[in-house]
Amino acid sequence: MHRVRRVAMLSLHTSPLRQAGGGDAGGMNVYIKSLAQALAESGIEVEIFTRADAEDQAEIEHVSDGVLVRHIHAGPRTVAKEELPRHVSSLAGAMNRIKALLADGHFDVIHSHYWVSGMTGLLMTDHWDTPLVHSMHTMAKVKNQSLGPADRAEPAARVAGEQRIVEQADRLIANTQAEAGDLERLYGADPASIDVIAPGVDLSVFKPGARSDSSQRSDIGIFHVLFAGRIQRHKGPQVLIKAAAELRRRRPELPLRVTLLGAPSGSEALELGPEVSRLGLDDVVTVLPPVEPAELADWYRASDVVAMPSFSESFGLVALEAQACGIPVVATDVGGLGKAVRDGRTGLLIDGHAPADWATALEQLYDDDETRRALGRAAALYAQGFGWQHTAELTADSYQLAVAAHSGTSGVE
């Protein structure tokens, strides 16, 4: 059986070149770009297919040696993520036309990310006679289990699409054992078809440094809590704001500062300004646009704690990035965050979203500076086990298993 040398990676609803933290761009964008680059460093060429959303967009953008992005023209220029399933056939057709024009149109594996790409991949795999590996990143049934009163359930079409992907893909990649369990329990996935592979972190960018050296640290005396991610209900920034209000009520003398780096996103987008003002936190809470990785690392190092009050997460790359910078993380004990954060060792896991519980956790870390610093040191060491090259090696093994399953051979060479 031949070794995998070339991969078609599908990220059709959002480009890995987009700035994470706004629109539909988040941890998945970071994951795809970083994984592709690590695969290329190991000798596997990656072409990432994403949907063009501008007239003047270059057809091809070279990311690095062995990695390029192809922009697929299909459907209207501007279309909401929720509407993309209507254009799956058009996307698959456009990709087939591009493949036919390539001098060497051969790909060893299709790796799709998120269910829209997975549905397109299913249409392509038979036409290309190429195995399909799929990464869910988020799942409709999991999200629907944690809906709040104002949340909208994921549509039945997505649930049905994910079910088809689970049944027909050659391999499934889960970020954690918990995600693999959800695939088995909720979708009836065959455990033998699932590979559990944790995401990585760029340890050359996200690394410890002196807080006093950070360009974002204007006042060493403050207690700085940072949130980085899309400003949407699902990510829970509203929980952090209410916790800050509770903490200020309890401890008005506490020099609290809360920074949120991100932009509103999709149907769950939040406008936080009115709530911040209503709670009297205009002098405490600052909302800023998302930033590039090097600046984000600087923000992490300028914080005392990073908060992730998410309602569900397949993993939570922000938690890894923050810990790699030596900063403890306070996170909801949901999904992959139970793996990304070691409770009591690299941060704290909170059961639920009660603002009082979050305020208590933050208060404890403010009062116990020694424990907070110890958590940060342990966090930096823990993150060292999550380099992207290791993720790429395991992913390449998954590709090899997919080739074997598709061709009827067995095992990895």
Could you characterize the architecture of this molecule?
With 413 residues, the chain is an alpha/beta fold. The chain folds into 2 domains: 6-200 and 387-407, Rossmann fold (3-Layer(aba) Sandwich); 211-383, Glycogen Phosphorylase B (Rossmann fold). Helices cover 39% and strands 16% of the residues. The chain is built from 14 helices and 14 strands. The model has no long low-confidence stretch (mean pLDDT 89).
CATH superfamily of the largest domain, called what?
A: Glycogen Phosphorylase B
- Report the helical percentage: 25-40%
| Helix/strand structural class | alpha/beta
- Count of the separate structural domains: 2
Helices, by number, come to 14
Q: In the CATH scheme, what's the topology name of the largest domain? A: Rossmann fold
What is the general shape?
globular
How would you sum up the major sheet?
8 strands, mixed
- CATH architecture name of the largest domain: 3-Layer(aba) Sandwich
The whole-number mean of residue pLDDT values reads 89
Q: Beta-sheet strand percentage?
A: 15-25%
Q: Give me the side-by-side strand order of the main sheet.
A: 3-4-2-1-5-6-7-8
N-to-C CA distance: 7 Å
Return Rg in Å.
21 Å
